[in-house]
Amino acid sequence: MAEMGIFETMYTARALRRFKPDPVPDEVMSKVLDAAIRAPSGSNEQSWLFVVVKDAEQRKKLGDIYRKAGGILFALYQNRTKPAHMAQSTFEKLVASATYLVEHMGDAPVLLLACLKQNPPTVPPPKLPPEVADKMRTMARTSGSSIYPAVQNIILACRALGLGTCLTTIHMFYEEEVRAVLGLPPEVQTYAMLPIGYPSGKFGPIKRRPVSEVACLDRYGNPWK
Ligand SMILES: Cc1cc2nc3c(=O)[nH]c(=O)nc-3n(C[C@H](O)[C@H](O)[C@H](O)COP(=O)(O)O)c2cc1C
């Protein structure tokens, strides 16, 4: 297969949630993982861990947990209105697609868990001066910043290799159960569960709010033309 250009890859890597049952060859998954580890990470620590789940029984267990987490997601959605920029029909399609995945996560040929080995981000390392420790606590929002670039590489590599995938996070409602299924030690936290397979649906194009609505020049309120 000819290599895809990076922009075509980015512009067509839609979230895909329906997959053919065909297995994903290990060589192809190795390419996806090799793209993942090219991502940047804080201090270049590379404390990531990727768990590739192919075993049907393991996938079923994770699928059952994801289905349970879907129950919480839908309870949250009951109180959520659609984003202002989104047409009602688009929102309904999104909910239908997410609902499908809740029921079928375990059927995807591969489930890829993207994890980080670290202490909980709100617990500062010992022996730090108090003012530094205080700053560390305010940094909690960066907790995923050393794994999500790798996750985006996975999404793009999948697209370039003809695979579909979708970043999901709701398994974290029951993370302890996921950890037990995977046998993860306490210092490893999960950040994303990505179903991967050859898609039943079509890639792209990706539609988003225009740059003019979401970018500023120099200061807030001064739009980027
Ligand atoms: C942080 C994050 C969490 C997400 N969690 C879920 C999820 O739990 N379930 C799901 O079906 N999709 C999930 N998605 C996928 C989004 O719904 C999807 O990226 C978005 O609707 C854009 O889709 P598109 O690229 O096909 O336009 C998540 C995406 C992100 C970035």
In total, the number of domains comes to: 1
- Share of helix among residues? 40-55%
Briefly, what CATH class? Alpha Beta
Q: Outline, from the CA principal axes?
A: globular
Strand order of the largest sheet: 1-2-4-3
The average pLDDT value, as a whole number, equals 92
In N-to-C order, the SSE pattern is HHEHHEHHEHEH
Distinct helical segment count: 8
What percent of residues are in strands?
Answer: 5-15%
How does the helix and strand content classify structurally? alpha+beta
| Total beta strand runs | 4
CATH superfamily, please? NADH Oxidase
Largest sheet: 4 strands, antiparallel
CATH topology: NADH Oxidase
What gyration radius follows from the Cα positions, in whole Å? 19 Å
Taking the alpha carbons of the first and last residues, their distance comes to: 38 Å
Could you list the spans in which at least 5 consecutive residues all have pLDDT below 50? none
Key features?
NADH Oxidase; 225 residues; 4 strands; four-stranded antiparallel β-sheet; alpha+beta; binds flavin mononucleotide
Task: Describe, in plain words, how this protein is organized in 3D.
The chain has 225 residues and is α+β, with helices and mostly antiparallel strands. The chain has one domain (6-214): 3-Layer(aba) Sandwich (NADH Oxidase), CATH 3.40.109.10. 41% of the residues lie in helices and 12% in strands. The protein has helices at residues 6-12, 26-36, 56-78, 88-104, 130-138, 148-160, 175-182, 211-214; strands spanning 48-53, 110-117, 164-165, 188-197. Strands 1-2-4-3 form a four-stranded antiparallel sheet, sandwiched between helices. The longest helix has 23 residues, at 56-78. It is globular and about 55 Å long. The mean pLDDT is 92.
